[in-house]
Amino acid sequence: MSTRTAQVWIEQYALESWKTPGGHRRVRRSEVIALRERLAPSEPKRRPVMLVQAGKLNNARICEALSALGEVIAIDDSDPLSSLTIIGRTMPAVVVIEVGDTNLEQLAMLTHLFIDPLLGHTHVLVLGDMTAGQVVAQMRPGEQVSVASPQSGGAELRAIVETILAQGEPGASNRVPALLESMRGYPVPPDENERLKALNRTGLVDTPLEPAFDKIVQVAANVLQTPVCLMSLLTHDRQWFKAQVGLAERQTPRLWAFCNHTIVQNGVFVVEDAAADDRFRGNPLVTGTPEIRFYAGAPIKDYEGYALGSLCVIDNKPRQINDEQRATLKTLAELTSDRINLRTHTRQLAGGPTR
């Protein structure tokens, strides 16, 4: 920025300034940054990418029907490996795939779409018969899969995909979280895709136990006087425990995780008696080991504010906690967040992988 430009902005009162005793102009840094943001051209909204893999008769018809919704890429259904490569490179919002009765390679591709957690945001629309429906039913809990008839009209397919795309749009209507919750069986943050990327960036999932985190869960269990405390990280399909007290398992399906409710809010989420709560009374962790009755969790967040998981305490009998205990749990979760973020920054400064 030239000196003349700064003078013009000051003269036009776009920037507040004052003179020093020596006659020099001074401007607040915060004012300059705010003006820069106001003047910066807004970035064009990125059109969603949709991949279509269907038979020759349907490919062109489906692509034409979806073209108004974003960028549509037709991929060859004869080479599953090539298809997976394209999917990994483009990170599509939606994959529309036609699955026949006997095409096992297509079914294998459908299953492998969800191996990479960075594809946790990708929704698969399967065009197929009951065979496809049976495959979808066997997939892991939490995956985003819909089924439609291969004979669905263009307008019908467009309406289905438009609803799917709305799930990831900032400022989408309030029906979107409810739609996701109904589909997955648990609350889903509106920024789920970015949240999963943030979790992957930490490099924590599936790493060994560490004293730095073990100490925090032990302190939380002692202060809140509960037999179980967990540092839980939520992947696209798992609840994985980086640190734990009082529980032998290292993970559960995400579908069972109480922490799904914790990561969609800022405060402490409390369930005083899970057996009497309609959301949890049928949960396998309530009806079976460890027979959860009481749960309290506070979100663990990365440096950009994405909820990675939670620090939670659990008891097998109903109970309550007071305000001081809530504040303590929240503080310990913030300490956990700080340790994760320091570690991530240290690795990035050292030139390590950011995933």
TrEMBL record:
GO terms, molecular function: kinase activity
Pfam families per record: GAF
Domain GAF residues, every copy: 208-350
Keywords recorded for this protein, A-Z: Kinase, Transferase
Gene3D superfamilies for the chain: 3.30.450.40
InterPro entries: GAF, GAF-like_dom_sf
Protein name as catalogued: Sensor histidine kinase
